[in-house]
Design brief:
Blueprint lengths: L1 E5 L4 H12 L3 E6 L14 E4 L6 H9 L3 E4 L6 H6 L1 H21 L4 E7 H4 L19 H19 L3 E7 L1 E3 L11 H11 L4 E3 L5 E2 L1 E3 H10 L7 E5 L5 E2 H12 L6 E3 L14 H7 L7 H15 L1
Parallel strand pairs: 1-2, 1-4, 2-3, 4-5, 5-6, 6-11, 7-10, 8-13
Antiparallel strand pairs: 9-12
Bound molecules: nicotinamide-adenine-dinucleotide.
Length: about 300
């Protein structure tokens, strides 16, 4: 199949590109390289440097005749979305609609969207949350993810196009940006390796569902199947807090490092954990990476970058 993947130069997108190419698909990456990197790009993929909000998207889709749109491009920082909701919405909502309009017009068969199980549910009532859990996102970033899901439902209902929204937990692994605000594993691993003191926000008891990037890439391949439709959580069903991540990484990288806590982040969600039962029942996906090994592989990657 011919697949367009937005954000294919980024952390998760580049692993999805690798998985699609291994599975024998033709891949075209659409990226503006705002956070994506040339070195992440698979040599067998074609790259179009373009902004997802651009009017040129229409002509590109007209000329290329993609079978699938996989949409990973986004501004990914929850705090940026809180500080500048307009910027977030222009990219994360209007950018999506721009792509979906072109997809419908030029007969893309399916859209796969990178949603966020860590933010669309808000503070959870049930652990782990399944896809029927109420959605009460607490940030513009989470609202934008949920809004994209609503648009995709609208397009699927009114036009001949299918969609899958993958609600990821906290994705970690090689190529994650260690200099951003998001991605505690990458940030701590990198700091411990270069001898900078990591700071744990607040009491460090906030939990997330950490899912390894190659498991996420595998899910993106599985949902190409025709029977895959609608919303699926992609997580492990396990909660891990920041203190545990810090101590596991410290143990591997620098046992002498002190544990230092800073101010709690205002409005930060307390707990998050996702059930993967639905995608397991329908497509047989389950996480394969053990967390300890996943951390070691991530540290190994950052070690090589120094
Ligand atoms: N990392 C996580 O834990 C996580 C969790 C849930 C959902 N997601 C979603 O997965 C997707 C990928 O996230 P990531 O962690 O790989 O981030 P990333 O920043 O590494 O990747 C984003 C990519 O999109 C590109 N991009 C950004 N704005 C663009 C624009 N206007 N036009 C074209 N390209 C643009 C960037 O250059 C980059 O290559 C995002 O949609 C994110 O919201 C990530």
């Amino acid at each position: 199949m011919k697949i367009a993947i937005t954000g294919g130069a980024g952390f998760i997108g580049s692993h999805v590109v690798d998985a699609y190419i291994s599975a024998g698909h033709e891949v075209v990456i659409l990226d503006n390289f705002s956070t994506g990197k040339r070195e992440n790009i698979n040599p067998d993929a074609r790259v179009v440097e373009i902004d997802i909000t651009s009017a040129d998207i229409d002509l590109l889709f007209k000329n290329e005749k993609f079978d699938i749109l996989n949409h990973h491009a986004a501004q990914i920082d929850v705090r940026v979305s809180v500080n500048d909701p307009l910027f977030d919405a222009r990219l994360n909502i209007l950018g999506g609609i721009n792509l979906y309009e072109a997809s419908v017009k030029y007969k893309v068969k399916k859209i796969i969207f990178a949603s966020s199980g860590g933010t669309v549910y808000g503070e959870q009532e049930v652990f782990p949350a399944d896809e029927t859990h109420p959605t009460r996102p607490l940030s513009p970033y989470g609202i934008a993810k949920l809004t994209n899901e609503h648009y995709l439902y609208y397009y699927a209902n009114n036009y001949k196009i299918d969609y899958v929204a993958l609600r990821y937990g906290n994705v970690y692994g090689p190529r994650q940006n260690p200099h951003g605000e998001a991605g505690v594993v990458a940030i701590f691993a990198n700091k411990l390796l270069d001898g900078t003191q990591p700071i744990i926000n607040g009491d460090g008891k906030q939990t997330r569902d950490y899912v390894y990037v190659s498991d996420v890439a595998r899910a993106n391949v599985l949902v190409l199947r025709e029977q895959a439709k609608g919303i699926y959580n992609i997580g492990t069903g396990e909660e891990i807090d920041v203190n545990i991540i810090f101590s596991m990484l410290r143990e591997t990288v620098n046992p002498q490092c002190e544990e230092i806590h800073g101010k709690a982040q205002k409005g930060e969600q307390k707990r998050s954990c996702l059930s993967y039962q639905k995608i397991y029942d329908e497509l047989g996906w389950k996480p394969q990476m053990d967390f300890t090994l996943g951390l070691k592989q991530t540290v190994g990657f950052f070690y090589q970058q120094i």
